[in-house]
Amino acid sequence: MGEPNGNEHLATGNEIRPRRRAAILSLVVSVLLFGIKFAAYKRTGSHAILSDALESIVNILTAFLALTVIGWANQPADEDHPYGHGKAEYFSAAFEGGLISFAGLMILVQAGEALFDGPEIRRLDQGLWLIAAAGVINYFLGRYLLRVGHKGGSAALIASGHHVLSDVWTSCGVILGLLLVYWTGWLLLDPLIALAVGVQLSWTGIHLVRKAAGGLLDQEDPGVIERLSELFTKHAFPGIIRIHYTRVIRSGDRHHVDAHVVLPEFWSVQEAHGQTNRFEERVLDEYGRSGEIMFHFDPCRQAYCKICDLPECPIRRVPFEKRVPFSPDELRSTVEADEIQK
């Protein structure tokens, strides 16, 4: 059995502040857009526009939640939370998905009632201009939230960004449908558009809940494994022979990486510790996330001579041929050296 060994890279204030600014901006803009959309509804009486406005209420609630969660999720690890508090962001994303689905169901109820009661629409041209302006603002907000969320590894901001962009498509659908109402005079299109919006929102909410559940249950992120594969291959040096059985716990921006590393069997514990520390530091400096790497040491047992480029190895059986890249499949492998030798 090898000795666990790890370095840690922590998020700094400069890395956290952009996420807080993004959350504050999202809250302020969401309140503004709700005001615009509700004004458009009051002017027109359109249920399609009302459905768009109801979604903005969800935006306000989730933006406030994201702002609260981001501050708490970025607290450092402590005795009670050894992996940090980052998974709170997945709770935020799941709650947001639930609210979106609930808003979708409310819209379906409102649209169904309008179909039976008969819609009444007025001053449609004014409402269209207001919804178009709200859609443009939402587009730029959504792109900004996604950029900051992906850069900082914030599940809450990424969920909000996807929700805001789905709101843009909602607004586009509402505008297109109401233009048809304006040109044809067929008022029943208005509640039908609202029904379509309700279905789309419900599906978006379910998707966000499923994605957040994957983060809470530590579902593998293929993008993370591919990034580790790239960095392990780039920064490996003679003596880092093979890496396998790699698992990652994602806790918001903080990642905890566990992996087995095959080392020369004649290295002492002290040398193995020092060499893997050097390797970890190189990887974490370029990884782009706060966190740590914990390696379990596996001796080579002379099973990897063909792919080990360690010079002047005293136990080499066959000549070195070529170094093998640490592919994603290799990182996921659970096969031990002695099994390969057999």
Would you kindly provide a brief summary of this structure?
With 342 residues, the chain is α+β, with helices and mostly antiparallel strands. It is built from ten helices and four strands, in the order βαααααααββαβαα.
What's the helix and strand layout?
Blueprint: E1 6-9, H1 13-44, H2 47-73, H3 88-117, H4 124-152, H5 155-184, H6 189-216, H7 222-235, E2 242-251, E3 254-263, H8 269-287, E4 290-299, H9 328-332, H10 337-341
Parallel strand pairs: 3-4
Antiparallel strand pairs: 1-4, 2-3
Helix pairs in contact: 1-2, 1-4, 2-3, 2-5, 2-6, 3-5, 3-6, 4-5, 5-6, 7-8
What does this structure look like?
With 342 residues, the chain is α+β, with helices and mostly antiparallel strands. 64% of the residues lie in helices and 10% in strands. The chain contains ten helices and four strands. It has a four-stranded mixed β-sheet with strand order 1-4-3-2. A hairpin with a 2-residue loop joins strand 2 and strand 3. The radius of gyration is 27 Å and the shape is elongated.
- Architecture per CATH nomenclature, i.e. the level-2 architecture of the largest domain: Up-down Bundle
* SS strand fraction: 5-15%
Number of strands: 4
Q: What's the level 1 CATH class of the largest domain? A: Mainly Alpha
| Oligomeric state as shown | single chain
Main pleated-sheet profile: 4 strands, mixed
Overall structural domain count: 2
The whole-angstrom Rg is 27 Å
Residue windows where pLDDT falls under 50 for at least 5 positions = 1-6, 337-342
Average pLDDT taken over every residue: 82
